Amino acid sequence: MPDALRHKHLLEAADLDLDDATLVLDTAAQIESALAGREVKKLPTLRGRTVVNLFFEDSTRTRISFELAAKRLSADVINFSAKGSSVSKGESLKDTALTLEAMGADGIVVRHSASGAPHRLATWVAGSVVNAGDGTHEHPTQALLDAFTIRKRLGRLEGVRVVITGDVLHSRVARSNVRLLHTLGAEVTLVAPPTLLPVGIGSWPVTVSYDLDAVLPTADVVMMLRVQAERMNASFFPSAREYSRRYGLDADRMARLADDAIVMHPGPMVRGMEIAADVADSARSTIVEQVGNGVSVRMAVLYLLLGGNA
Fold it and tell me: Where is the Aspartate/ornithine carbamoyltransferase Asp/Orn-binding domain (predicted)?
């Protein structure tokens, strides 16, 4: 098995073909297995490497997950927040990148509100760039950890029927998941009100439905998305109550799922809006597992990009 990805960077799900995506998932499984019996959960694979977490947007799960992943691989980690830095004084992304380059960063994990920012960053630095979410564009490691979670729970990805429900229009998670799951052989259905579906969705490798109840009985996976009110400047649906009534996953809807179907959410959740509390906390839910699996998957990505020697 190769121990590196085809591309130097991970900027979007399209960077991963079937072999690359499978390599990441298999490597994550090997890392998880290697750490399972260890009292000290560390591997020496990236000792001497420096990873910078460059976050221009608030984040809890993703930032901490990447930090833990790099530290468990024995890398040196620099956490950079735009708040309180020279960025707040007007420093450009390029100048920030060149500063980090001068400090010898081997890998830069970047989250930015502007779609395409990681792609620009990748042209300015010698190290590898990992997109940790850019605007409404992509979030490839979230898609990888979701695929990893599905494979662990269901034992396969080929032919798995995945329903992604909610604010697809503003969701970088949905975009990355659609591309990656299609590459891995899953069948994806998007469910949302017409106002929350992007223009050009007819070219995506998905089926589109406006009726959640109609697609639930045949779904293997239901992935709920948060309504991203902070990215909206207009009314996309009549009311939160109406949205929840038509597109929220509650106990009654969960009862229509097949016995082995699972429920996912990339977080952060709005309990009672797109997902009921009892559904989020049920045995079918993989929400907590997704967070844990994210560390293993991000360890695999950093290891494969930065060329650690096991």
Answer: 158-305
Residues 78 and 186 in one domain: no
Q: Strand 128-134 relative to strand 107-112: parallel, antiparallel, unpaired?
A: parallel
pLDDT value of residue 229: 54
Is residue 229 situated within a structural domain? yes
Catalytic residue numbers, as ranges: 61-62, 89, 111, 139
pLDDT tens digits, residue range 255-304? 999 999 999 999 888 888 899 999 999 999 999 999 999 999 999 999 99
Residue 28, domain extent? 13-138+291-306
What is the value of pTM for the model shown? 0.93
With a CB cutoff of 8 Å and minimum separation 6, the contacts of 210 are 191, 192, 193, 194
Cis amide leading into 268 (omega within 30): yes
Closest CA to 204 of 163, 174, 171: 174
Annotated binding site for L-aspartate: 89, 172, 226
Q: What is the pLDDT of residue 46?
A: 96
Q: What CATH number is attached to the domain comprising 53?
A: 3.40.50.1370
